[in-house]
TrEMBL record:
Pfam families attached to this UniProt entry: Fe_hyd_lg_C, Fer4
InterPro entries: 4Fe4S_Fe-S-bd, Cytosolic_Fe-S_CAF, Fe_hydrogenase, Fe_hydrogenase_lsu_C
PROSITE patterns reported in the protein's UniProt record: 4FE4S_FER_2
Annotated ranges, domain 4Fe-4S ferredoxin-type: 77-106
Protein name: Iron hydrogenase
Length: 414
């Protein structure tokens, strides 16, 4: 019987060739459904029988790795994953000693859309992309390659990080007026927001009601191009869950990972290093640096300073990355040991460059992102003309007007 990985590559090649699916005999039909129609599939797939039980001599490593109480052990069935509690951190997949768990893949229906859909399809790529597809693969070459695959265009999600930086900076300027006030970033990390919503609900009043840059990007594209489809590309499995949250549905049609995009390139004749440059500068240094831990805090700090250089209460940041580190920081806040007034949390160690579906090591990813961010002509969102140009297309003359009169990037966190 073909393994899931073998079946995946076979179906992916057939999708690229736009051929009717021909699958090997004796293949579990559930495997085919998970790959061909993954929207109804869970984030984590169990592809082998689980031998871990409540009677096992050793505790289940996958269950022990879960910080979300999403895995329970059944005496007969072994591991059972609660999809409602799973946030997509992938810790269980990495910990499973039997290699019995696999992550959700959405690339095959994306390829089918590129063949069949007669409207525009935009790729929205997360800021951590630098270096993921090779040291010499620039943003311009990647944009050309994505267009060659059939995408209408590629937009850097970092530009929406720019706008949300301004939103958070204005929220800070409005709300932090005493030494006892503090704000938790709504930022880009779905695991951070899930942690606050599920475990620390009492802190939600201190989180601005903002969507993530991914959702902001999808909503903006659809506001400007109502018949467009949007495909997010990033290092994060949790984004696949975020796009399906009830109040966010519709902004992003598909979320795929850097690894899935790499798989697609591997079964085509596209040589990324030989692609022509198609450079369209989008984001500021600050927005691009959302990709690594500390980037959000630094962006908001610098933007608040530019908004009001003489502000009496300055931004005092504290940041944490990795689920245990984030929990420790939040517990300090609740215990009154804040040591700051602006708190950034990233679910993955290192931030998005350390995402579970990144291709390169987080240390290398950070170096590439820093190098790319240094090439930006704009230090902060305040100087970024692309932001102003995009907002004018939406009917607003300034960022302040957009953020006060539009609810496109708002979210009710409860």
């Amino acid at each position: 019987m073909a393994s899931l990985d073998e079946l995946y590559y076979q179906l992916l090649r057939q999708a690229v060739a736009n051929k009717e699916k021909i699958v090997p005999e004796k293949v579990d039909p559930r495997m085919i459904a998970c790959l061909a129609q993954p929207d109804d599939a869970p984030l984590i797939w169990r592809v082998k029988p689980c031998v871990c039980t409540t009677d096992s001599k050793e505790p289940c490593a996958a269950a022990a790795a879960c910080d979300w109480d999403a895995i329970q052990m059944d005496p007969e069935k072994g591991m059972i994953i609660d999809d409602a509690k799973c946030v997509g951190c992938q810790a269980c997949v990495d910990a499973c000693k039997l290699d019995a768990l696999k992550t959700k893949k959405d690339i095959i229906p994306v390829v089918q859309e590129l063949h069949d859909y007669d409207g525009p399809i935009y790729a929205l790529i997360a800021p951590a992309f630098s270096g993921q597809f090779g040291d010499d693969v620039t943003v311009g070459k990647l944009r050309t390659a994505l267009k060659k695959l059939g995408f209408t265009g590629m937009i850097e999600v970092a530009v929406f990080a720019d706008i949300l930086t301004l939103k958070e900076a204005l929220e800070f300027d409005k709300n932090i007026n005493s030494e006892t006030d503090f704000q938790l970033t709504s930022c880009c990390c779905p695991m951070w927001i899930a942690m606050i919503k599920k475990l620390y609900h009492q802190l939600l009043p201190n989180v601005p009601g903002s969507v993530s840059p991914m959702i902001a990007g999808g909503r903006t594209v659809k506001a400007l191009h109502p018949n467009a489809k949007t495909v997010f590309i990033g290092p994060c499995l949790a984004k696949k869950a975020e796009r399906k949250e009830p109040d966010l549905v519709g902004a992003i049609d598909y979320a795929i990972t850097y690894q899935e995009l790499r798989d697609l390139f591997s079964v085509t004749n596209i040589d990324l290093n030989k692609m022509e440059e198609d450079n369209v500068p989008h984001a500021s240094t600050a927005g691009i640096r959302y990709a690594f831990a500390g980037g959000v805090a630094a962006a908001v700090t610098r933007t608040v300073e530019k908004l009001d250089p003489h502000r009496k209460i300055t931004v005092q940041t504290r940041k944490a990355d990795g689920v245990p580190g984030c929990k420790a920081m939040i517990n300090d806040i609740l215990a009154g040991k804040r040591d700051g007034n602006f708190f950034e949390g990233m679910g993955c160690v290192g931030g998005c460059v350390g995402g579970p579906r990144a291709i390169i090591k987080k240390e290398d990813g950070k170096k590439h992102v820093q190098a790319y961010s240094d090439t930006s002509e704009f230090e902060t969102p305040m100087e970024n003309p692309y932001v102003i140009g995009m907002l004018k297309e939406l009917g607003f003359s300034t960022v302040e007007e957009f953020l006060t009169k539009s609810h496109l990037y708002d979210r009710k966190l409860d």
